[in-house]
Write a structure and sequence with these properties.
Elements: E1 2-10, H1 15-22, H2 27-35, E2 38-46, E3 49-56, H3 63-71, H4 76-84, E4 87-88, E5 100-101
Antiparallel strand pairs: 1-3, 1-4, 1-5, 2-3
Length: 109
């Protein structure tokens, strides 16, 4: 199991809409997230930033393949089109990232 923390900005005027669409995400998106091996997925908000936490429970050697499958799942590009318009990516993110991956510096079970 691998843990991930990610961060992205959120346009301040859009918070209520962002929260509204996440009350019940589209069934196809929920299915795709689960099918890719992502579990324990949460998004938090503070000071115009979104913080996401999730766990990848699939085999390490399948991670890239499963994330590609997730990106190409039915309606995923449509969902990302809606949500990306609300977000402001960090300038310091790595090439190819939208949500900036964070380094885990502590964990306790």
């Amino acid at each position: 199991m691998r843990r991930f923390g990610q961060v992205v900005g959120l346009r301040p005027e859009i918070l209520d809409e962002y929260k509204r669409i996440h009350v019940k995400i589209w069934p196809e998106i929920e299915y795709a997230i689960r099918g890719s091996g992502i579990t324990n997925y949460s998004i938090f908000f503070k000071d115009h930033f979104l913080f996401a936490y999730f766990e990848y429970t699939g085999p390490d050697e399948e991670f890239e393949q499963r994330m590609t499958w997730l990106a190409n799942a039915p309606r995923m590009q449509e969902w990302w089109g809606v949500t990306k318009a609300m977000q402001v990516p960090l300038e310091t993110r790595a090439e190819g990232e939208w949500w900036a991956n964070m380094e885990e510096v502590f964990h306790q079970d």
